[in-house]
From TrEMBL:
Belongs to the bacterial flagellin family. Pfam families: Flagellin_C, Flagellin_N. Residues 19-143 form the Flagellin N-terminal domain. It is found in: Secreted; Bacterial flagellum. GO terms for molecular function: structural molecule activity. This is Flagellin.
Length: 272
């Protein structure tokens, strides 16, 4: 009879133990989420969700680096345009001096004085073109393009053109009002101004393109971060509610287990 009694009254205890263990496992899992602030801490919490989170994380990080690249591109274009602005001013001054040299009342000494200033301006143009660099990259002394990755994916890039300004406006650097024709000198300065103006317009368009790209990337970063947060981040209010419910379940399970154990002991004592 004792064996039958043990079997009969012992069935409830393992069941309550099992329920209590399940509650404790859920509490442990919930505490991990509360500690990390994440709904998904590993693929075990949701394989599909983890994959989506990883993709969104990669997208967000890629967008942020791309934004940094874009602003570097804008800075580079601004440096190049600043150099062209200085060259444009120097060429404009050479044109003004050339017009002054066309005054028939000037003697040779007067023209030599004018040419002295023109020569200084020509030297300054060459120095500006040579010294306008960004991170060691020449911007106005070599023909080419510098490519910037402006997106998180392959093929999303913008090129900033560089130009060999000295070579392209060489005629204005050879202006000499003491020996040459004023008309030829004016034609050279006008051509140089047109060339420099075209380069500046191109850089301005590139800056606008990059600025627009930066705005789009910033918005994409906000959207991707929000989507990632909705999937990965824990709802603290809901989690706290779940924790309270699990505490109640745990206490109830322990109470039932204690009562079952106590009752079993009392019955066994009577039977013995």
């Amino acid at each position: 009879m004792t064996g039958i009694t043990d079997s009969t009254f012992g069935l409830g205890v393992p069941k309550q133990v099992q329920e209590n263990n399940q509650v404790q496992e859920k509490k442990t899992d919930l505490m991990e989420k509360l500690a990390s602030g994440k709904q998904v801490n590993s693929a075990a919490d949701g394989a599909a969700a983890q994959q989506i989170i990883d993709r969104l994380t990669s997208q967000v990080e890629g967008n942020r680096q791309a934004v940094s690249n874009v602003y570097d591109g804008i800075s580079l274009a601004q440096v190049a345009e600043g150099g062209l602005d200085g060259i444009n001013n120097d060429v404009s001054r050479i044109r003004e001096l050339t017009l002054q040299a066309g005054n028939g009342s000037l003697n040779d000494a007067d023209k030599r004085a004018i040419q002295s200033e023109i020569s200084a301006l020509q030297k300054n143009i060459s120095q500006t073109a040579e010294q306008t660099t960004f991170g060691g990259k020449p911007l106005l002394s070599e023909q080419g393009a510098l490519s910037f990755q402006v997106g998180a994916n392959a093929g999303e890039n913008v090129d900033v053109q560089t130009n060999d300004v000295v070579n392209d406006i060489a005629s204005v650097l050879n202006v000499d009002v003491t020996t040459g024709s004023v008309n030829d000198a004016l034609a050279a300065t006008d051509a140089a101004l047109e060339t420099v103006g075209a380069y500046r317009a191109e850089l301005g368009a590139t800056q606008n393109q990059l600025a627009s790209t930066a705005r789009n990337l910033t918005q994409a970063d906000v959207n991707s971060s929000a989507a990632q947060s909705r999937i990965a981040d824990l709802d603290y209010a809901q989690a706290s509610s779940q924790q309270a419910a699990l505490d109640v379940q745990g206490q109830a399970a322990m109470s039932v287990q204690s009562m079952a154990t106590q009752q079993e002991g009392q019955v066994l004592a009577l039977l013995s």
